[in-house]
Amino acid sequence: MIEKLPTPAFIGKVKFDANGLVTTVAQDATSGEVLMVAWMNEESLRLTLQTGQATYWSRSRQSLWRKGETSGHTQQISEILIDCDGDTLLLKVRQTGPACHTGAPTCFFQKADI
Known about the structure:
Elements: H1 7-13, E1 22-28, E2 34-40, H2 42-51, E3 55-58, E4 63-66, E5 75-82, E6 88-95
Parallel strand pairs: 1-6
Antiparallel strand pairs: 1-2, 3-4, 5-6
């Protein structure tokens, strides 16, 4: 059973790492395909919850970025879940356009030859 939590209680369960970040997985809400993995800080999580649009923290630029801000390839939030340890978020999204900056539908398009 999925427990629904109000925003403050939900954010209170998140275990941000020493850099104030939490691993975030974006998954297509319809197909279940994993689209990408990114990072969120408390501010990006709050913005995502408030706007319904995925907003992440860029470790390389050290700034917030709303997915699709420049490309138009947005992620509309359907659901946000937290794992049992509180250290990973799962965003179920409605993706517009490709999720990967390479133009691929998902960032996971290369596999090991095993």
